Amino acid sequence: MSKVPYILLVLGAVCLVAGSAAGLFYAPKEQYMGDVQRIMYVHVPTAWNWMLVVIYALICAIAFLFTSNYKWDARLEASLEVATLFAILLCCQGSIWAKPTWGVWWDWDPRLTSVAVLLFAFLGIVALRNFVDDPPRRAIWSSVATIIASVDLPIVYYSVKWWNSLHQQQSSPSTVSSQFHFPLRANAFGMLFLMIAFIMLRSRIAAARLENEIAPPLEAA
Amino acid sequence: MTGVITGGWNFVVAAYSITGVALIVYTVSLFTRSRHDHSH
Known about the structure:
In chain A, about 75% of the residues lie in helices and about 0% in strands. Chain A has about 220 residues and is mostly helical. Chain A has one domain (about 5-25, about 35-170, about 175-215). With about 40 residues, chain B is an all-alpha fold. Chain B has one helix and no strands. The chains are: A mainly alpha (about 220), B mainly alpha (about 40). The interface between A and B is medium-sized, with 34 and 25 residues.
């Protein structure tokens, strides 16, 4: 069995520790938000990688519908679960950042609402997969549902541009001071490596279960 | 009122802790489920 996911797990952990240490102890305070801005170094990388995993789930869903290859269904199951984990993390980090800066834990602002819609849609698809025992039906239904839910992703991305939002516009190394670059980039790569490792490991679990479900029953001797 | 936020380390620690704990718990759950599948 490939050792790639284990190597990625270690690399991801190293990048996250280095990036978080730099973000917490080396990077200077932001002018207006002070130390609270340090939440950006985990929140923004989580958001970037959450968007990537949602796009990957969409690719898996489309690939399954075109090929009927269960390898894509296993990958879809993995990416749905990882996307849900990252969305929950994103909402928790965002709420914790919102309280000292906006004065509230949550606001029904376009960015937050569109992320919540996608989180609950993916939670629903994960639940659907657990309720349906028939592999072909489960794969087709969850692929179609993933494609429909993914329509929300461009709304999430452009919500801060299209509407008057409490949430700030997208942050990237080009929109923040150069002293903030290292922790942001290190944590982004850390989250990326972990995300890929999670998808690979979870896909193996899903593929093993599918193999058992699809394999013909053994005949009695 | 200066518009500058002071303090707030408790929020920073909470955000990093939740992230770290969630990632570690998920990693452990993957290994546990993987081992459980191989034992069947």
